[in-house]
Amino acid sequence: MPDLERALREARPDWPRPSSGAEARARAALGLGPPARSPRAWLRPRGRSGARLLATAAVLATAGAAVAAALIGSGSSSGAPAGRPASLGFDAPRTVGRPASLLDGAPAVAVGGDGTVTVVWGRAGRIVASSRPRGGRWSPPERISDPARRAGHPRVGADGAGRVTVVWRERIAGRRVTERFRLPSGAPAGELTEVVDRRWAVVARSGRPGGGWGPLERLSAPTARVRDVEQPGLAVARDGRALVLWDDGGDVLARARDARGRWAGEVRVGGGGGEAVDPGLAMSPGGAAVAVWSNRVGGGAARRYEVRAAVRDRTGRWSAPAVVNEPWINPPHAAGAVDDAGDAVVAWGARGTLAAMRPAGGDWTAPAELAQASPVAIASAPLVGVERGGGAMVVGGNGVGAHRSRDGARWDRVALAPATGRRVGAAMVADASGGLVLARALSGPGRMLVERLGAATATALPAAGRPVMAAGPEGTLVVAWAGSGPAYPVVAAVAEGGR
Amino acid sequence: MTRRRTAAIAAAGLVVAALAATLLLAARDRDAAAGWGPPAEAPSGDAGWVDAAVDGSGRTLAVWAEERGGLSAVMASERPAGGGWSAPQVVLAPQRWRVMRPDVAVNARGDAIVVFEYVGRGSSVVLGAHRPAGGRWEEPRTLSRVARGPLDPLPPAVGPGGEAVAAWSAPFVERSGLRAAVQVATRPAGGGWRDPRPTGAFPHPPSGPRVALAPGGRAIVASPGGVVAVPPAGAPARLPRPPWHPRRVGTLAIATDAAGRAVVAWSEARGDGSEVVAASRLGDDGWGAPRLIDVAPSAPSVGSLQAARARDGVVVAWARWTERWTGVAVRAATLAGPELEGPAWTLDAFAIPDHRAGSSRSTPGPPPTRVVLPVDDAPGAAMWDRLTARAPAFAVRLAVAPAGDGGAWGPPDVLPGGPVTGAWPLAVGGGPTSLVAAWSRLLDPAGGPVRMVVSERGR
Fold first, then answer.
1. What is the pTM of this model?
2. How many angstroms separate the CA atoms of B299 and B250, rounded?
3. ipTM above threshold 0.95
């Protein structure tokens, strides 16, 4: 039974989703009652598996195959509505705007439930956004941050209704001082200028592309430490709930927003000695989340990085944070992923790439070494994802490849589409169907390979830069990067859902 | 009788052998038993930058930059030979601009200048302060114009009469490559600082241009691209083309001899792959024929080239590979007369941890050894470091050799106390009866506060 269940679950034809009426008729024909919580709650793995599969087989046998397969394939352990696999039929890359200030962080992208794609980036110390409705054209870049304040490191998310949320780091205070100097003769020697009494905070803004932006909202308390709130994390669920994460001294803090747009107070997710750095946030479609960061402890030759992780369940409760690694001398650039059940995975770089998994409510497994880098190399930041069905996927840097595991102890190598050249950047996202899509930017010659993990082939885009990627529930996929050249254009390639 | 005689002979033999071994060891190294006093730490607290200089009487002047409540200050303290450190004196009161690289120079009688850089939002400016021997520090003066990007101050110099020179180079890129625009500010003896004067732009070498002061206050700036004289007043003037190939020079050092003539020592890569150390003196008829002082079989082998005026001529010292990348020799020569005669001595030869380990380059460069010489006209000595452990917790042992008469050198003393983590030679010198060594020590080898330490022994 379990094998048949898995096989049926993994049948994911790209067929249209059934209407709620069609689903109701199918359920009535099968003698199934109305769903307890969601139209597809009966597809959850816990309980009634035998009856469910028999019902599925009966539907297939009665030529309701399209409805049945869609019902099965769109179900997920999340209870959240499932979506389409990401399309790989890309339009030609387009320049969305320029220039991108890479010192202010990489561009970020999101796809709303209506297929609208939004790209945000830092430009001359301000945050700008551009959007493209499904089938439409990119809007002129619009500044969305306060023109009087320096902002950077934006993140963007979009909900099922297409409402977009952007967060960034903003300098909310500072005073410019100038001193004029004179040479011994009295002749002017010029002036030095500095900004003092600086304070930074995490700021958010929400809106609907083309429909206006809401007010600026400050989410964090001001900090005077220049290294705090450096790269806030953001995750937005389809129902509009959101989670924001940032570092403050040795701690990592978060604030949650409900589906009605109300922000709750900040909570301390975790922390330790030293300085919390490199916070990362990932959220499942149903609202479970994992926060990963490092605490940089010790000094001098004794400096070490401790990778910490905490998991938030769908009710909003955070687990106690745990140190998952052997403290390491170099920045580990840890990343994590979680599914709706709360099963989480974290990966990080040390001498090679290591990973650990945590079943919901359980403990983290001992770190498993996926692959060793060369003795003198430092492993690059890994990419982490959770597949439909509960498998974890980790994609390491050059020479490490991709690995999959179900229990955190055994990791099996996964073949990627063949590629030549040196990898200069990569991104991975889970699409709405629960599959994982990987984009690799390669040099020699420059190109971007985009593939669905497990498929043998990849789509090649004719340009390369360190990519960011997002997938929408209706199958739209966007890859964006900052191009090279004197004007650092922001470039995006869109594959609309349904192709 | 025979047995007693045999025993006596054997005993005498043992004594002789022991004495010979002792003499050999003494010739090879002198250790803590040679009379170095315990290290005395300057009252610099947790400083960001430190520097030190020793005058001809053995008085040590330490300067440092320190942070107080977000403000930066420059402080100084002195220690006479055989004495203790003075309470810290304020050279620059706490102010908002970040202070970088305070550099101190003294002459043999104790006149001093300190030169440092302010940095603010991508711009920088050079300032300097003067203190006559036994006097008080004057208010720091702005010596340069504010520049975009870093200014790279050169080691300043104080002449025998109290005249002073500060110079800096601002790197810039043009089609021919990286170059440096060098400017000079001079201060005549008993007078005030003059506005800076440009001396031209040169190819930016690995070791940077160097400046020396001739008696009377004429400054001489040497770089691979040429040599420029800066008179106390008036426009700088290019001196005759020097006898080195501008694109083959590795490192430069310049001093003036007792007659005020510029003597430049340099390392130069040859077409056959070797590297030479040579010196030349600028006379009335131009540069003298280069005197070849040392030859290394491959380049780059020579580092930390230093020059200083001494009683017997101009002392030149350097470090070079004897065995790439594990064997180092410290060598010196006292060059006298128009022909720059004088033999080269090997002051020390030692092994260091493999310099290639952890390097991303296949040819790591010259030895990491730093050599320092006394100020002009001070009794001769040299100090250097022997690397004993590499980063992250690099450690060295410090060695000092006194110069004798006629350009000869005594055996080196290895300063007591074992390897010092994060140490860096700063200054050596002393009077006729004392030898003083000053060094900096990182509290944390990976960075952070620095302490300044001095030790002394009788000559």
1. 0.72
2. 9
3. no
